[in-house]
Amino acid sequence: TLSFVIPKEITAGLRELSQQTQATLFMTLTAAFAVLLSRYSGQSDICIGTPIANRNRTETEDLIGFFVNTLALRTKVDGGTTFMDLIRQTRTTALNAYAHQDVPFEHLVEVLKPERHTSHHPVFQVMFTMQNMPTGVLELPELLLKIMDTEVVTAKFDLNLTMTEADEVLLASFEFNTDLFEQRTIENMIGHFSRLLEAVVAHPTKQIVDLSMLSQAERRQLLVEWNNTATGYSIDKTIHQLFEERAAQMPQAIALIFEDQQITYGQLNARANQLAHYLRAKGVGPEILVGICAERS
Known about the structure:
Elements: E1 2-6, H1 8-20, H2 25-41, E2 45-52, E3 69-76, H3 83-99, H4 105-112, E4 126-131, E5 159-166, E6 169-176, H5 183-202, H6 216-225, H7 239-249, E7 254-258, E8 261-264, H8 265-281
Parallel strand pairs: 4-5
Antiparallel strand pairs: 1-6, 2-3, 5-6, 7-8
């Protein structure tokens, strides 16, 4: 588990956004978390699990017992919409889920019949928990009660984000499966999430695709360092002539890799020449267009 703090300026901005969209802080943070997961996974259909107290009746509010149920919140992250629109979508989804919070999660799984696997939780693998219940002192006759911190040694989900309102800031922590994530990955994720929250507070009406979560160092690495691929070559030779020279110099070197297949420079050059001779035999010459239709390979 790795913990971090959302500063009071960002927390205040998130609360203001929630008021503007008639949403709760939980809904706003869920929307932001969905954007983060969408960026990391490359997917637009995000499903996040969240616990709910399930004490929506007066007679159960003060009872001691475990009434908690789990809700699955599905969010469609469209990069062309604004973050405020995403909050409104998340609000509608959450309210619909609250209206059916009495339905046990186990029954939902039974009805949906998703493909089950022992390595992950069904329906969702990421949980978001918002701790906003008052933690006042509970006094019982002849009984002393206190909250104790326990050490978590087993992750219940692939990733679990827990956030707690504490005065003017938000306290947060990521619990993660170490079989799937390295600590450095989660540290980067914390930085990305913090910068994403800062971006949505500063520019809530921007399209989601334009909200940045990268640091200046990461942007430079992506745009400058990793694109520094310039190299010298003979300007009086064509691309295929340069390739044939390399194939002659190192014919056994690997030129292409796809899944479990590999092709050397020599093999690729031979195949290219074979195709060229075939096309010439069909009457293809300079300025003749040839259509290419091929599966990814």
